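notes to self, project folder thing:

trying the whole complex as one job this time. last attempt i did each chain seperately and stitching them together was a nightmare. two parts in total, labels are on each line so i dont mix them up again. if this works i'll redo the older ones the same way
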Amino acid sequence: MAYRKTVASLVAAAALLGTSSASFAATDISWWHAMGGKLGEVVVDISNGYNESQDACKITPVFKGTYEETLTSGIAAFRAGEQPNILQVFDAGAATIIGAKGAVIPVEDLLKDNGLDFNIEDYIAGVRYFYADSDGKMIGMPFNSSAPILYINEDAMKKAGVEAPKTYEEFEAIAPKLKEAGYVPLVQSHLPWEFVENFKSRHNLQFATNNNGYDGAEGTELVFGEPIKNHFKAAKKWLDEGLFGYYGTGWGDNQTPFNEGKVALWIGSSGSFGGIADTVDFPFSATFLPYWEAVEGANKASFIGGAALFAMSGKPAEENKCVASFFEYLTSPEVQYMWHKETGYVPITEAAYELAKKDGHYERTPAAEVGIKQLSLDGGEWTKGYRMGFYVQIRDVMNRELGKVFSGETSVDDAFATIKADGDKLLERFAKTTGN
Amino acid sequence: MKKVQFQSPWLPYLLLLPQLGIVTVFFLWPAAQAIQSSFYLEDPFGFGSTYVGLDNFKDMITSTDYGRVARFTAVFTFFVTVLSLGIALLLAVKADKVLRGASAYKTLLMWVYAVAPPVAGLIGVLLFDQHVGPIVDLFAMFGWKMQIGVNYFDTSFAMIVTAVWKQIPVNFIFFLSGLQGISKSVQEAASIDCRSGFRRFWTVTFPLLAPTGFFLLIINITYAFFDTFGIVDVIVKNEPGNNPVTLVYKVYLDGFRGNDLGGSSAQSVILMAMVFILTIIQFRLIERRVHYT
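result (full assembly):
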């Protein structure tokens, strides 16, 4: 019944907000997002829930395609003065939208200016600063926050008589047995996110100069040391020995064999949870993204993945007020818990996490807690996140060169040399875009 | 012939105005914008920009990837043009000789024309899918383990096959009508002079088809360069990775996916120049060898 109470208080809050503007007609606000399939259905549910909870505002979610397409549509619309009130921007696009000073209203200011509470400490540690500026002010409202985790086909473990690995060393020990049992032992689904960015975070390794790029775009350069090169050398060796499967850059091409029960261990997103639970017909569980024990100081938290919601600037005050009230609704523990339960994305506030625990969600489905637990592991100097411009292209460069490693066109050392050269060039170019 | 003269000197310009308007709005204006932004590095949201001179062009030419993409585009264009023209010509010559049920054959060969490029790409993706594609299964029987999206060669192969398949009907229709336009008396005279059907084709029929062939050559090069965008996009599934992509697709990737407006504009300026040069070569050099009757 806590839900009803919150709804009631939200209605009251919305009514109070509505008094200054003429509230005889609901103010329309738009929300452009990239949540397809089942995720899109939940987005519609949340919007409907918000619309029913109050009369002053009416939110309309619009599906805009992939993350990249959503960002590009948002940019094009902004330049034409037709921007939506809320734009969902993914981790790799964060530097672009945060770097464009004046494109968005920082969520911290938006909430405070509209008389709503904001305390960054209410959010779970892992999501606090990824979408913040260098002073720690939250710019984007974390929405679908995820972590890369290891999904386990329990049938495969039983058949091979092994335990799921915590480290890559353990994986190397059990992989031949999984292969013998007739499975592809390991598949990932996003090389830049799972094998590069979060490899850096899990092992507490520097990713870029200038404090991983947070201290400014100028002079930021990528950093690749021996551990990550050794990781890819090992992965290439596994591939050649049939212990690792690589099916190209597309996420789905790599997830399909796991869903079909051909793969024993699959690295996916904690947000894949809801979809897998609906699809697969074998028992599955999940655990943390593996790390190399040999790397000193490893087993740290991973970067937050997924996307955040940004309140676009240039909109009338009453619409911004609605955006603020929607954000408040969205971060309420009940809505967060519903989102978490339906999709597998992590709850972004401590209160929502507590609610999920109290409700016994993790006793029923322990795999659902893996993402948030991994994000709550000990942090280190380099686990806060990264901030790099033209990052969509940098990821494309990584996919290109690392894909060449797996297809045998290049060596690991050459691939990382090219990634660094092309990536640094892109960063240098990005630094110039913000000039006057 | 009667000479037609306009009464007012302004009337011809007025009649040309809609066409000129369209060219200005949809070509000249964007082209000028592209040239301008190719000299700047601009914040995607439009808040700031820096004049960088020719840096965008320099960065583009010195990047290893651009050369790779340009080489692939050349190879792709060559194979798509040669194969779709060659196969269509063969089919047209054979279909021209069919006497019974000719229209059924022709319709079967032409229907693909109605398929939109992205749909063609989607059919290609399904046929070549690494998990469920029947063509992949077929080649696997001969020991070729195709991996679209992983192996550069296999992906190129799938793209070329799909693009050729999509283009054959257009060429077929034109070649067939070209063949039917060759007068019977010429063909009969030729068959009295020469017994070899093969030789008759090369010395009589083929030269008479040259105007059609030349027109199709231009159409096909343009097709392979620009219109295959949908096919490339669907086959790489919006994730370039280490897949082969064409120059036009790279303009899209950098501009609309990566939001690098300056770099993307520089590439499109180069592309414009290339098309310009191509047009000159085609009309200056090749057309001289084509005889119109």
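what i see at first glance: Chain B touches chain A at residues 41-50, 52, 59, 63-65, 130-131, 147-152, 236-243, 253-254, 256-260, 262-263 (CB under 8 Å).
need to look closer tmrw
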